[in-house]
Amino acid sequence: MRRFVPGSANSQKYQRVEEEGLSETSSISSNPEDENEYSTFQSKLSPLGKNEHSENGGLLSGKALPLGVPGAEKRFFFQRGSTVYDEDAVATQSSVFDDPETLEEYRPSPEWENYHKFDPSFRWSWGEEHRIIRKIDRRIMVFAGVMFMALELDRSNLVQALADNFLGDLGLSTNDYNLGNTVFKLAFLCAELPSQLAAKWVGPDVWLPTQMVIWSVVGCAQFWLKGKTSFLVTRALLGGLQGGFIPQIILYLSYFYKHHELSLRLAFFWTASAMADMLGGFLAFGILQLRGIEGQAGWRWLFFIEGLITLVVGLLAYFLMPSSPTSTAGWLRGKNGWFTPHEEKIIVNRIIREDPSKSSMHNREPLTPRLLWQSMKDFDLWPIYILGLTFQTPMTTPANYLTLSLKGLGFDAFKTNLLVIPSKVFHVIAMLGLTYLAEVWGELTLTALIGQLWALPFIIFVNLVDITSIDKWWAWLVMTLLLCYPNAHPIQVGWNSRNSNTVRSRTISAALYNMAVQTSGIIAANIYREDDAPLYKRGNHVLLMLIVLNVFLYLGTKVYYVKRNAYRERIWGSLSEEDKLRYLSGTKDEGNKKLDFRFAH
């Protein structure tokens, strides 16, 4: 089965708007009189004819089917003023499915879970599409964010526990704490691929809730920690059980969203993580005051209560996660599901028209070892993995030690937890702004670089100035501004997904990229060492070198993808139209290895 992605060099062949004589004002309300104008434009976009599939409708009969104007999509709410946005205009974008010569080459397999809703003749309006996107946001995205918040609560509560004498109660040193973080990250890292493969086999709607329920039990069990051994064991169990959660969610969301929509939703997804950190700060402020209840430390109650919260969310996830856009009926979702048959057709066809590769595998189809190896050796994605390995490290290390640093500056435990919150709030705002900028600007690499340029002057400052010797409020301000940096993580996750270009590759690349990010966390957890305390001069020098390295890595990534696209363009441009069609119908190249595919950068 051949795959195609709009935006490639070949996509212009299928933009038939001008060739078919369709104007920019073509809309549902135009009331065409010609019998060839697709039955008064699909009867105001009602389901087509007597047959839901329509057997290609007017495509094979030679009829010209109305298509949306390329570039007419208004991606953001502030672009949809009444003078520039017509919600009745055709939203259906040009695709390989509009040309009989390529339709059969890219037709989804009948085994694809949404095949019964695939219809290349189906048309809909921008108003309908945007209303459905908002509905998907409410039904799918919001709960995905809640699940991520639960994950983050259980990942970050160790930092809050530090403010309640956690290390002293268990007789642990700073190095023991670093070791615990390393063990967690290493277990998380090792579980990424196996967990992702298991989710691809049984479905993320089954695997993700199961993960949450099991790790919530381990989270609650931290109430009974006794010392270094139990601390390290629970860190390893939590890391192993939580590994793979993030790439699974990303793959799951890709079933419902287009590429640019996914990038923006991932920004809100990590906003949920930051909100969990803020919520965790407030929860810790209250829960840690339970110290002394039943003769137990406040941090023990923190682990136990937040573990119970995750357990509840995990149980709900069994009933609130549909397996696909066409399988939303369920006990808590209603016997008719969340979407009407007409809405399901819009969801399925708008996704597959943008990226036909999303129909290449069933969502419960396991990956074979050959496909796994094929995905792992895709060197064109390695530049993004390398960025994932280092881009957060200079900021993660200070973030890990923020509570300890604030306590060292003289703030008490409760004020310390509250002073962490502003950096989380402004970090969220900066991350959202950066992600929107990347989509509006249409530039991924240089936009992602902004985060490094933001952090650079603050890293230089902590290398030149002993922050323990200045006023503690000025020291807090410097650290807060550093940690407010605009994080490019959502951009890079979406970037990785775009450049993967098959479900098989997207499944593995999401895990490999996240493994790189977790490795970054391991590195970050071991930069500040006990023999370098309290100023961490050696550690700060390392952070400065890493941030300079990151600047060159981003620039190198930009050059790499520009060169790769130019190389393919030269080859593709030298082919005749007949040779291009012959290549598309006969090539064994798949996904981003096809000559007509262009890498996003």
UniProtKB/TrEMBL annotation:
Transmembrane segments: 237-255, 267-288, 300-321, 382-404, 416-438, 444-466, 542-561
Keyword annotations of the record: Membrane, Transmembrane, Transmembrane helix, Transport
PROSITE patterns listed in its UniProt record: MFS
Annotated ranges, domain Major facilitator superfamily (MFS) profile: 140-601
GO molecular function, one term: transmembrane transporter activity
Membrane topology, as annotated: Multi-pass membrane protein
Subcellular location as annotated: Membrane
InterPro entries, alphabetized: MFS (IPR011701), MFS_dom (IPR020846), MFS_trans_sf (IPR036259)
Highest rank taxon of the organism: Eukaryota
Region (Disordered) location: 1-57
Entry protein name: MFS general substrate transporter
